[in-house]
UniProtKB/TrEMBL annotation:
Pfam families: Pirin (PF02678)
Annotated family: Belongs to the pirin family.
Organism: marine sediment metagenome
Protein name in UniProt: Pirin N-terminal domain-containing protein
Cross-referenced InterPro entries: Pirin, Pirin_N_dom, RmlC-like_jellyroll, RmlC_Cupin_sf
Segments forming domain Pirin N-terminal: 21-121
Length: 223
């Protein structure tokens, strides 16, 4: 078995979106072909409500798909299709903008005023740019978790891994989206199909990738 070489390691960049939400962008400022079909990956994590509570008021999307994954707090969602709902800790939302959709996402934080989540954007192929918009929420209880003997734990959000399949399907990019915990001191190898673009984002702790130039710490991404 050969190991895929690490092409680049970069730190997520602080930025502001929506009505003033402070977040960190792992990628999305640069050439979109770098990680095509993935366009953007944001880490919105704050302990101060004033840094996120104004949220992302009504705004349009077209020709893309988004996956929102909440770790702490709650995100209130509404869209022009009439969908409304709350995303709580561990929940996932998938939205296909297709021919066009208006929506808003309003972070509310947990009881301690903390908010943390991720949003991934995927590009739709040209033949699917004008498909009808779609939306679906997945509760944390619907997301399978697999644990290895060494304590490695994986939540399978999309795609198939270790015999489990994530509940989010129908995404044009057909991504394998995993939330992985590897215990300290454990070395782990994961199989990646050769035809896939791949990136890993370390959001807690630190780790080293096989041939990477250095140890990768929190809020760093590796491709």
């Amino acid at each position: 078995m050969s190991l895929r070489p690490t092409l680049e390691t970069r730190r997520a960049t602080p930025t502001m979106e929506g009505a003033g939400v402070k977040l960190h962008r792992a990628f999305g400022f640069h050439d979109p072909s770098e990680l095509d079909p993935f366009l953007l990956f944001d880490d919105f994590r704050n302990d101060r409500p004033e840094d996120f509570e104004k949220g992302f008021p009504w705004h349009p999307h077209r020709g893309i798909e988004t996956i929102t994954y909440v770790l702490e707090g709650t995100v209130e969602h509404a869209d022009s299709l009439g969908n409304t709902g709350d995303l709580d800790a561990g929940d996932v939302q998938w939205m296909t903008a297709g021919s066009g959709i208006l929506h808003q996402e309003m972070p509310r934080g947990n009881a301690a005023g903390q908010m943390h989540g991720f949003q991934l954007w995927g590009n739709l192929p040209s033949a699917q740019k004008m498909t009808a918009p779609r939306y679906q929420d997945m509760k944390s209880s619907d997301i399978p978790v697999v644990t290895d003997d060494d304590g490695t734990r994986v939540k399978v959000i999309t795609g198939e891994f270790w015999g489990k399949r994530g509940p989010v399907d129908g995404i044009a990019a057909d991504p394998q989206y995993l939330d992985v915990f590897v215990p300290a001191g454990v070395k782990k190898t994961f199989q990646i199909d050769t035809y896939r673009r791949a990136f890993a984002y370390v959001f807690q702790g630190a780790g080293a990738f096989a041939d990477g130039p250095c140890t990768t710490s929190a809020r760093r991404g590796t491709t």
